[in-house]
Amino acid sequence: MTKKRKVLVTGANGLIGSRIAELADLDFDIITMSKTKNEWVDYVVDFKNVEEITEVLNLSNPDVIINAGGITSIEFAEINRAETTLVNVDAVKVIARWCEEREARLIQFSTDFVFNGTKDWYCESDIASPISHYGQSKLKSEEIALNLGSSVVIRTSLVYGLTNHMSRLNFPLWIYNELTKGNTLKITADQFRSPTFVDDLALATIDLIEHSFNGIIHLAGSKRLNVYDFALEAAELFCLNIELLTPINTDNSGQNVKRPMSTGLNNGLALAVIGYKPRSPKEGLKQIFKKLNTQKN
Ligand SMILES: NC(=O)c1ccc[n+]([C@@H]2O[C@H](COP(=O)([O-])OP(=O)(O)OC[C@H]3O[C@@H](n4cnc5c(N)ncnc54)[C@H](OP(=O)(O)O)[C@@H]3O)[C@@H](O)[C@H]2O)c1
């Protein structure tokens, strides 16, 4: 029997990292790393302690590192700039240096927020020009990863889903919780994203682990939707009261940090490279609803 390749997944308590680790477990020797300790996490490391990263990498010695860890709150990143740079940029430098020395492959997660949001659809070759500190930190992480001989930068957008080990809610689950309680919600109808079902994203990431592709690749949902319409689709599918949702403009949203208005990610390259064909939002939401109902029973 051939030995399974060792794949270390950071951010293993997060939405994306947890799903990759869950789905790749049969084919790879998965090592989980995250900031918060629990039974699922093999190594607890806070990226602020950069020297601990190298220690754990030396100990675990992975062939591939999937970096899905880091600061993901745009508000937190804007207020805590130095900490965000440490976690989202300096930690990636340390990981990349280790990969270079050991000839390991790095798969680095990035975001649609590297774009300024003035176009409907973005290809990998479009100029990145982030308008927030979060977006700037992610763009720097891309540049670091792309300097390596074997690396992939995955950009994605408004990821949603339900995994067994995730540490926080995502957009449709928040809608589900709030509407179930009868709470009203105001949602922006002038910001456009390509909502991405986490299982599609995780499976495509796993396809890239041993692939010869290097460079930036967009892995997002197939539809470009405004955020209110996505909420509406979720509420309808979850059989909840859509009257509780009100569309608003960004100007009235109280959002303190500027977000790009439109970030549809074009998946054409991913279709060509790995045959990536993501589910429609309806199909992704249906999977969540099925899982929610199974958990209830
Ligand atoms: N979700 C989206 O809509 C979306 C969209 C575009 C791009 N992305 C990118 O995809 C990647 C993963 O996102 P996600 O949604 O899975 O994130 P998430 O659910 O917020 O999880 C983030 C993970 O990072 C870990 N983390 C946070 N601060 C850390 C620190 N100081 N040191 C070490 N680990 C730390 C957390 O650890 P604990 O939970 O253990 O504390 C958590 O496991 C990120 O690079 C993000 O920029 C996500």
Overview features:
10 helices, Rossmann fold, 4-stranded mixed β-sheet, 7-stranded parallel β-sheet, 297 residues, binds NADP nicotinamide-adenine-dinucleotide phosphate, 15 strands
Main β-sheet: number of strands, strand sense, barrel status? 7 strands, parallel
Could you state the order of secondary-structure elements as H and E?
EHEEHEHHEEHEEHEEEHEEHEEHH
* Percentage of residues in DSSP E strands: 15-25%
Please count the beta strands (DSSP E, at least 2 residues each).
15
Name every ligand kind in the structure. NADP nicotinamide-adenine-dinucleotide phosphate
- The stretches of 5 or more residues where confidence is low (pLDDT under 50) are none
Tell me what the structure shows:
40% of the residues lie in helices and 19% in strands. The protein is built from 10 helices and 15 strands. The chain has helices at residues 15-24, 50-60, 74-79, 81-102, 133-146, 171-180, 198-209, 227-237, 268-274, 281-296, and strands at residues 6-10, 29-34, 43-44, 64-67, 105-111, 121-122, 151-156, 159-160, 185-188, 192-193, 196-197, 215-218, 225-226, 245-248, 262-265. It is an alpha/beta fold and 297 residues long. It has a domain at 6-164 and 196-221 and 263-278: NAD(P)-binding Rossmann-like Domain (Rossmann fold), CATH 3.40.50. Helix 6 crosses helix 8 (227-237).
